[in-house]
């Protein structure tokens, strides 16, 4: 730990020298007197470890965590633990998507803020979030480097980390066990591994969804999902080697959404839209509808992030058919199925894809995020805030958070401890470790991705309905899809360059 | 009037008239009915409806609205009283300001009157929210962020821009009345207080009512100026409810709509008079 | 010119020392005339102003021109300037300067007035007299001061601020703590970026069509409803009238959100279509086919919200029409339709021109309708730059400046829009009968 820090400081001073010669626009209007030789020390100077006596740390947490009572528990625990040390914390009851750049400078922002990495890091760009002395923190070694990278920010050539990863978010497959077909063990477990085949490969899921549509199953649909959601659908592109930004998401000049065989992935999104044959999935509100539809037996499964697990459970309990305990036991979260190498959901026999899995399929890469804590640069009590963050990212709280919310911790020790009862956690941690979760880039330019990408996905997945309406198809060949992807890349680039 | 015979032509006219009336009332009533139905949904989710009808009914949402604020996320009762406070204060203050402006513009001829007239006309055409950043910074400088007074000041202070309706009303009061009072030695202030105001009751009521109703439906500005959820107005709170809380949205809407609707029904005569007078003379 | 100079010379030679004192120090002259309260008022205004100007005002004024010279470094805790705050405080100090200048002039005028009164041998105004003047012959000034101050701070200042923003490079990368500069770059960008230009033209076309269509629709339907309720054979018109009033009373955003849910992809209307075995329709979703549906629904919802007030207004108007006119027309054998065409319509249109104009402007800038109905929709990225095909200019502005931080571009565009609407409606308004009549009225 110590060596790492010395090393980074050494690196900093070397890089700082080069940075001094090349500082551009920022220096034009003053501010040039930055002493970069001991930049790290200077930046971290305010974390001197002296707790600000009487300070009240204002904590902004996420709504679901508040709603389910976790936050009150956390703050109570912190206040009890720090009673003698003269600091306390309170929940800030403002909108969870506060605008730190607007509120912070005038003193209306939070001290400590829990959010997804892309939202937090948007504010790191203009230094609204503080870099944290992570090498001195207890959690440092427990959290994998890939998770830390989600919070990396460069200044004068040195890398700083502006947030503490707390949990891993990525798409998981949700289903209700009692809605499985009664005969799944005889009909849908060809490889007899105790997992329904249609949860193992998308080819099999496609086949099962077709079965459902014909009727006779417990649910009307098999798999339903918002086919216009960039966050989840980008997994189809990424599995076939597309990426968002180059250099591990740090180089906005290199946009890779049309790279590799991305068009194949896009084609499958279109296949799904046709199979689902339900225009509700073309609306962004579908994600809220999904909770109810699964409980009502409209569909068997969907893909979404673990943090909304409680929403499904609440919907189930609200129908009156489950008690709280029954619902918790009946709702399952598993990793997303594998995708066919052929990149065609109907090309292979679904039975083959499960019996010759390694040969015919590939593990799906999903986009993901790392939720965590950041500390506002406008805080009056950096040390007390840091103490709170340390407390909230401790092993005990990481476990407690999982128990309240079902989220997957980014701490290895917590993940291992929970994995025994909650398999999801182990799976997500493992996928993160193996790079099968592609973390959302932590640069501002990511903001230009969503709109054009959604526009493309809508056009793509509306095609199956265009035929019914007698309109010409937009994306009926691979070439057209590839062109569409390239156009998308061009649009993102335009937006980044022209409006900078 | 002589009794009219029911000719076929007249009968057809009757049928057509009442069909149109029926269609009109349904078009206006139905969406309101639907919201009331939705507020009685048991599960609370929009997606559990069978068409327009919730699958099960319950009064629970209305009870939850006031008793369960979901750990402080949706304190409806607080929002309600916040809005009431803002609405009453800005209605009082705003009405005074706008009546003064309208009265002066109606009865006085002075240098700069035409400038004021044209300026206000032009001010009304600016896209309001473009100035919101400025309003936010002004409020930070006045230390009014997170204070309901910021809204009251803003609403009241910007009302005089739309003084035209009130001026139209004052214009329609016969000038002879004022001249008589002036001859009796009354000052302009006295004329305003003792003659103009009592004669303008419908206008005053109409002005207060529109002023009162506005804070219940404004979303953008309170969202910017009021950070703390306990300071929000009903509109901000309801607008921020997630779709999974649709019944709560519906119940909250129904609850604030009822008093306003009753007010409107009681004061409809004044509204008609106010609106008409204001439009006849610009 | 020379004449004026000699006049000024005469004036200065004539002025008593008290007036000269007032010219130098605001309020001193009044004090010497024995007008203690008034003098103290002017003096204290001067004092407050000087205190303000020395402590912050001067710095703010300079800040308006520089927009900040030192960039803040939040990580290293190097304090610096905030361009936005400096801009607005600078504007404020300019406003204060103007205000004090005006006050100064009134102070001198007041002293001259008192001097003239004295010359004529009349008593100097006491404080009580001043109060009486304020309540009587100068009532218009007294009454207008609070509204003017309020409007200046909360309406004019923000607008001037926005106009200033259009001439800076604020937005995009240049946001706090980076410092902004005065610049013409937003205008250059609007002119040079084809995308912004083509989106602007597209949205402007729809915006004008929308404003015309919705104003006409609301007016026709509102008038129709009023006529319907006014028919002689309608019994219980108060009862029927209650339904539109219901819609009028419900806060607008609730109706709009309600309709949004009603027409949503999983909403009740689509549910019935689905049950009937038909395809769900993309009413408000992000699809090319939703364009005309959403526009139509927008017109409908807007009419649902605004026709009741037009109905109420025209109901009142209709009762003002002289019934003799109709009887005369009846006797001449005019059909009801002819009566409507020759009597009712001209009367209603004539007397509601100003309302129609304000309705038109209101609809042109109708932010709420598509903000609530289609929030978050940005359609076909290739054709529309950060806008949806139903967006009005004002919605686009919101997406540009609030959602995407392009402040200066947004401000520049809103300036263009403003010039268009202001020119249009001012010219119509000034030519309207209601405006011309104004001065002949009294």
Could you walk me through the main structural features you see in this protein, from its secondary elements to its overall organization?
The complex is a heterotrimer of chains A (500), B (282) and C (442). Helices cover 45% and strands 14% of the residues of chain A. By secondary structure, chain A is α/β, with parallel strands linked by helices. Chain A folds into 2 domains: 46-169 and 368-442, D-Maltodextrin-Binding Protein, domain 2 (3-Layer(aba) Sandwich); 170-367 and 445-498, D-Maltodextrin-Binding Protein, domain 2 (3-Layer(aba) Sandwich), CATH 3.40.190. In chain A, strands 1, 2, 3, 6, 14, 15 and 16 form a 7-stranded mixed beta sheet that branches. In chain A, helix 12 packs across helix 22 (450-469), helix 12 (262-276) crosses helix 23 and helix 19 packs across helix 20 (412-419). In chain B, 68% of the residues lie in helices and 1% in strands. Chain B has 14 helices and 2 strands. Chain B has helices spanning 8-39, 60-67, 76-107, 113-123, 132-142, 148-158, 164-171, 175-183, 188-199, 201-213, 220-225, 234-239, 246-266, 268-280; strands at residues 49-50, 53-54. In chain B, a hairpin with a 2-residue loop joins strand 1 and strand 2 (53-54). The mean pLDDT of chain B is 87. Chain C folds into 2 domains: 2-183, no CATH class; 189-441, MetI-like (MetI-like fold). The chains are: A alpha/beta (500), B mainly alpha (282), C mainly alpha (442). Chains in contact: A-B, A-C, B-C. Chains B and C meet through helix 1, strand 1, helix 3, helix 4 and helix 5 of B and helix 5, helix 7, helix 9, helix 10 and helix 11 of C.
Span of the ends, CA to CA of chain A: 39 Å
- The value of Rg of chain C in angstroms is 30 Å
Strand fraction of chain C equals under 5%
Oligomeric nature of the chains = heterotrimer
The CATH topology assignment of the largest domain in chain A is: D-Maltodextrin-Binding Protein, domain 2
Helix vs. strand class of chain C: mainly alpha
Number of E-type strands of chain C? 0
Task: Give the integer mean of the pLDDT values of chain A.
Answer: 87
